[in-house]
Amino acid sequence: MTGIRRSRDVPELVTRAREGDPRAVARLVSLVEDGDEVLPQVAAALAPFAGDAHVIGLTGSPGVGKSTTTNELVRIFRKQQKRVGVLAVDPSSPFTGGAILGDRVRMQDHATDPGVYIRSMSSRGHLGGLSAATPQAVRVLDGAGCDPVVVETVGVGQAEVEIAGLADTTLVLLAPGMGDSIQAAKAGVLEIADIFVVNKADRDGADATYRDIQGMIGLGERAPGQWRPKVLRAVAARAEGVEEIVAAITEHREHLQDTGELRKRRERRAAAEIEAIALGTLRARMEALRDGAVLADLARQVADGDLDPHTAAGELVTMTEAPNGR
Amino acid sequence: MTGIRRSRDVPELVTRAREGDPRAVARLVSLVEDGDEVLPQVAAALAPFAGDAHVIGLTGSPGVGKSTTTNELVRIFRKQQKRVGVLAVDPSSPFTGGAILGDRVRMQDHATDPGVYIRSMSSRGHLGGLSAATPQAVRVLDGAGCDPVVVETVGVGQAEVEIAGLADTTLVLLAPGMGDSIQAAKAGVLEIADIFVVNKADRDGADATYRDIQGMIGLGERAPGQWRPKVLRAVAARAEGVEEIVAAITEHREHLQDTGELRKRRERRAAAEIEAIALGTLRARMEALRDGAVLADLARQVADGDLDPHTAAGELVTMTEAPNGR
Q1: Does residue B268 sit within a domain?
Q2: In sequence order, which residues have a C-beta less than 8 Å from that of residue A272 and are 6 or more positions away?
Q3: Which residues of A touch B316 (CB under 8 A)?
Q4: Which residues of A touch B269 (CB under 8 A)?
Q5: Which segments does the entry list as coiled coil (chains A, B) (predicted)?
Q6: What is the pLDDT of residue A98?
Q7: Which of A177, A179, B55, B243 is such that its CA lies 20 to 30 A from the CA of B38?
Q8: Cβ–Cβ gap A320/B278 under 8 Å
Q9: pLDDT digits over A247-284, tens only?
């Protein structure tokens, strides 16, 4: 992979991505994932074209059938002649930059379809996790003409919440008998899900899970006109109930448009993205101060108990603002 | 909860916490969790006393028996006359500030033991998740004389990695037949675990899980003298294999001390904590610029496609550094 490290190559790369060249899309996502120095140019070149795609977040615990469900959703979107982007974000692989279940084995049904772009990403322990690289990767797929863009991530944890900040429509997948009811009971999941899918609905306990979720949604307070989360049943492995999921996604998007909430969500998303990039810049500056010696010195003093971390942080902020000792 | 909002009350509060007053400890943890403005005073008052506790991270998927195992570990540490702190961090509850399974139902065995301080925390969607509030809460328990401090968190995701950054010794719990092998296979978990515990080892598939983990550890490269992760079996619900976990924790701590790695980990931890606080300060400044109007304006332009997020972030950083238009 050489030859596209220079900023003057970026506009051509974006043009090729917009024409549907999967290698150009792949290269752009890699630049985002690597935090390449040409990222500002990439972002600038994409800005006029990005921002229209419907971003669908899909999350759930390991084993609930996320990949299978995504695969089925893609199939239906393709029948609707849509160009689909899929980002499978794996926040548990911060070190190696990739999941063992990589691109090749995921969603093989669509591996050769030029109308589908599938990519696995790791969040690589970035501060802010998903919030740093994923929105920019979504922007690449969006700018390349993918609509919808599906962002799939393993649930439980911070990632789940971040996906909701990123998505227009958030799907939370559950499966019977996996302790998901208790997990879902935690307010976080209830507040992020626009659509619940009880997958593997042919298994024992599916009705109980369905009722649990319905019950909890019933308890929540909702302003007039506010979206009431839908609860659906599916057996994605047999393609059952998947058309209904797509219908619910469409209905939710129309609701967002009609109420002006879509615009609000996108502004919130943009604000979070701007902030994440700004903090990344500042963080890099902190770590670069005297080639890292400033932070290391402060850390040593804190570890010794000679300095508290707040005072140390204050010194670090001051030095970041005046890196040349102004 | 009134009367301790003023910074002049902080030293007294720290004194009371060090004397073992659980209400003082609780109040300090609340101040940390709320990001109270007296936090710098709290940190300064704790600095001379904190830094000695052995911090044990315990993570794993929902249902592997984390609370039960923590409960058993606490029982053994208490037999050893140790004062124990437990922080149960729930990163899936960012909105409400608390899990449904709160302090009261967790680890009831020790609810009335004054030598055990147990607290649930949510990470509340803080940027950086655990990295912002949890280290400061650990510092409170440490400063209050708890040693060890056990930090328990739901696995899979960013939280898992962050716990490793926070802990001296990281335990990863697995259970047979939960798809954990595949999860564990992801490099992230392998690299963070100092000790693997196959819990529910009386169940079918325990041997396979045990062998899978052993096999994967065998594949990893290790420098001479580097710790080889231990793999243990336990049935925490019947208190089986738990003494062995404590012995392995002790052995790991001795290894860290002998090799100088303990000091390195603590400096790394301090660096991460300093950086998280510094970034929190800068973030608050960004959000406060013209009462939030600056970020909102930039977000609107990005949502419109008139500006790209990198350029917007650059403007935000510049304005944060010169908030008065210098």
Answers
A1: no
A2: A131, A135, A165
A3: 274-275, 278
A4: 303
A5: none
A6: 33
A7: B55
A8: yes
A9: 999 999 999 999 999 999 999 889 988 988 898 888 88
Query: In this structure, how many other beta carbons lie within 10 angstroms of the beta carbon of residue B208?
Result: 13
Examine the domain organization and report whether A22 and A117 are in the same domain: no
Supply the pLDDT for residue A113. Answer: 75
Residues of chain A with Cβ-Cβ distance to B49 below 8 Å are 305
Q: Which of A11, A31, A49 is the last residue of a domain?
A: A49
Top-ranked range on mean pLDDT: pick from A47-61, B31-45, B83-97, B158-172: A47-61
With beta carbons under 8 A apart, name residues in chain B contacting A135: 309
Residue among A63, A159, A308 whose CB faces B43 most closely = A308
Q: Which two tokens stand for residue A210?
A: 């369905």
A188–B123 C-beta distance less than 8 A: no
pLDDT at A222: 79
In the block, tokens 């037999």 appear at B79
| Cis peptide leading into residue A148 (ω within 30°) | yes
Q: What is the pLDDT of residues A159-180, one digit of tens each?
A: 555 666 789 999 999 888 765 5
ipTM: 0.81
> What is the residue range of A283's domain?
274-321
Number of CB pairs < 8 Å for A and B? Answer: 278
* Domain co-membership, A228 together with A80: yes
Query: Where are the extended beta strands (E) located within chain A?
Result: 55-60, 84-90, 116-122, 149-154, 169-174, 195-198, 230-233
A42 CA: distance to closest CA in chain B (Å):
9
Residues of A in contact with B48 (CB under 8 A): 305
Closest CA to B158 of B181, B180, B126, B136: B126
Whether residue A92 and residue B49 make contact (CB cut-off 8 A), yes or no, is no
**CATH number (domain holding residue B142):** 3.40.50.300
- Residues lower than pLDDT 70 in chain A: 1-8, 90-112, 122-132, 155-164, 178-189, 322-326
Which residue on chain B is closest to A294 by alpha carbon? B271
Chain A CA closest to residue B127: A128
Closest CA to B166 of B195, B191, B137, B186: B137
Which whole number is the average pLDDT over B283-301?
Answer: 91
| Domain count within chain B | 3
User: Helix or strand or coil: residue B196?
Assistant: strand
Please identify, among A259, A284, A313, the residue that sits at the C-terminal boundary of a domain: A259
Please list every residue in chain A whose beta carbon sits closer than 8 Å to the beta carbon of residue B62. 61, 156, 178-179, 182-183
What's the mean pLDDT when you consider all of chain A?
A: 81
Residue in B90, B158, B297 to test binding to A, most A beta-carbons within 10 Å: B158
Closest by alpha carbon to B167, among B252, B224, B106? B252
Distances (CA, A) of B77 to A44, B148, B248: 57, 8, 13
Q: Do B156 and A316 touch (CB under 8 A)?
A: no
| pLDDT higher than threshold 60 for residue B100 | no
pLDDT at B107: 52
* Res. B161 pLDDT band, cuts 50 70 90: low
Task: With CB atoms and an 8 Å threshold, state whether B131 touches A127.
Answer: yes
- Nearest beta carbon to residue B44 from set A129, A311, A320: A311
